[in-house]
Structures
1.
Amino acid sequence: MHDGRTIVAVATPPGVSAIAVVRISGPRAHEIARVCFAPRRPAKPAPAKLIRGWLRDPATGARLDDALAVYFFSPHSFTGEDLVEFHLHGGAGVLLACIALVVSAGVRLASAGEFTRRAFANGRMDLAEAEAIADLISAESERAAKAAAHRLSSGAGAVLAAMRAELLERLVEIEAHVDYPDEVPPPDPALLAGNIRAQARRIAEMLSGAREARALRDGLVCVIAGPPNAGKSSLLNALLEADRAIVSDVPGTTRDVIEDKAVIDGVVLRLFDTAGLRATEDPLEAQGVARASRAIGAAELTITVVDGSGPLGPDALAALERTAESPGIVLVNKLDLATENADEAQRGLNRFSRNDTRVVIAGSVRWVETIASVRGAIAKLGWGGAADGERALVANVRQIEALTRARDALAQASDTLEQRRPIDLVASDVREAVAAFGEVTGDTVTEEVLDGIFSRFCVGK
């Protein structure tokens, strides 16, 4: 909740840097700046204009840093409040001294995301824009950053706010007729149905590409599993294009889960190389197998690697059964050693195929074309192919679920109208869609949801 106090935080990442920014927002921001900052030349603060001067201790007059100050005035600042930024040299000592001066003057340290939350509370942005800012900050690839910037500039929140207002008008008309049937005529069913269909089409457009956008935003958890000595660690190294995992002919070399990241189509792939799946009496290896099983359970995509240089053994078949229910890839590896087994391996794996959710690839991690096929299958299964996040206006699970509920509610309302059922039955569906729109824009969201959203932000944003 906004307590009305002035807040302060470092807005740049921790560590030594050439420049660091300290941000102060609230009713006393300009007052604090006048006390702690002395311009080199007399200058009246002008909006968004950098002024050079000294960060100083008001108690002693001691100069602490050669700095720049920039003033922003309510309501035209980022937060909608009076705001000041100090641009300082990026040493830890300077930053600590600055924060200590400001806090000693009665200013409170900001919580995570509090500057953006104040911007939302003060009407400077809607919740969809705020979430796009968080996505932009946390983007780990260029495509993810472009997709987040597209959502930030798309005005999706404003579109949904207008759609929500339009539905509210229809809801008022319906309920007025239900309450006063003798005085208020019912809405024209044809016009109402057309209005609802148009909104349903707009929602479909907004959800278009959401799968790719979500993958770009959140990345994908991919677990490499299989029996010992199938080539799991070699596959990890090939996908990373680096010697990340130890490769050995000795079974049980990998005894823990090894995690690293690769980027495919701009999507950050969180790769987990796991211990070989097999029954073992070695307590350390058994722990690795247990961790591998837990990782498989949490995976969004699994790559099950089996040795195709000979007949599939019991450990390979057990591993395939263990991962059979998960969307994923089966890699029949080591065909460079015995290519005559390729047809036999393929026939043995047919029963583990799951149509569009499971792909079988026969080859070798030593072959460039096999790794290219694995990458292509990851993209197909993970996000439907090339990730074009700039088509989607929503990307996170909360937004997608809300708009899906709105789409379903409007479909039900449209069906009710087509069947010429009583028009008052449409009201509950329209009300559901209105509430769902409000969850995306922030009009009907709870404080608990806001706490969760803004906790994703860094402290200085």
2.
Amino acid sequence: MSSENPESAAGNDMGDERDMSVWDVVVVGAGPAGACAAYAAAVAGRRVLLLEKAELPRYKTCGGGIIGPSRDALPPGFELPLKDRINAVTFSLNGKYARTRRSRTMLFGLINRPEFDAQLVEHAQKAGAELRTGVTVSRVEQHGPEVPDRRTVAVVLQDGETILARAVVGADGSASRIGAHVGVKLDQVDLGLESEIPVPETVAEDWRGRVLIDWGPMPGSYGWVFPKDDTLTVGVISARGEGAATKRYLEDFIARLGLAGFEPSISSGHLTRCRADDSPLSRGRVLVCGDAAGLLEPWTREGISFALRSGRLAGEWAVRVAESHDAVDARRQALNYAFAIKAGLGVEMAVGKRMLTVFERKPGLLHAALTGFRPAWNAFARITRGSSSLGELVRSHPMAGKALARFER
């Protein structure tokens, strides 16, 4: 739908009289999840406000891998700002037994998050969403003096300003205030450390088109090298509570790669949080998506595709919540959103948790399978390209499910 006059288009669907002081949908957080939610609600012709506490573009600790499911969830006409196209992966087991597997076609692409995120926000704006940056949300209220009626949610900013909406989408990251309002529960928290290391052309050329994945020394840990033009994104991740060991892993990893002599342009850290199975995805007229909902793949901690897909769904269902005239209907629409998430992303997360269990216990087995067993490599390639998923792999290949169950013991 054209973004030239979303108010009149929405008015046709939502009644003859519209209170223009109340937004149809307010989205908190302008990362991939929030931008996709704002885009989905805006193309439906709704008045959408996208709030972001930072000024864009802004840095985000993230490897920046765009796998097939991420690519397929992008808005129409979105051109990926790729820094490299990957067709080879070197696997190593804590620096040993390195082997490179290659593909004739691209496995996945690499992007820088500041550029990627800003471009997603531009698509949401072109669809009709309004953006406000430099604003911090203090809380949301669904009852009390700030809320004029039961069809309204109050978004209270840190400076005291109150913004009213018919529906709110929380996409404000893994330390989400909206997630706290909803009551998101977590059962896995990991620490990721990352350095952006500028390198000479001779070093960059050696990495072009190839990434490294190193299965780390701590249970469930791994490291990566992602090349992006003249910079290598080098990072590691492991369970929270292993901060000192994780830092040593990154230092040893960089030294082992011969990169210790290069000064990082950025060094950063980030906690990833994975939801519990019974964690809510909504409360009243408030939905959560992406990191704010704890939606990411538990084994690899891949979150971009989960953010894009859950953001789109949250935006679509927020429109339905906004149209609801009573609490019962709003609750019904919110439950439908939760069902859509669990039927898709929830299945992938369940298999990912099982994969993490096996990986924590037997990383050498996984390494041997990917480097020496062609069907395992082919499955990895199909998943990264987006022609399959972890859930589909287990469903369509009974032997894979049986092998996973065996190694979980």
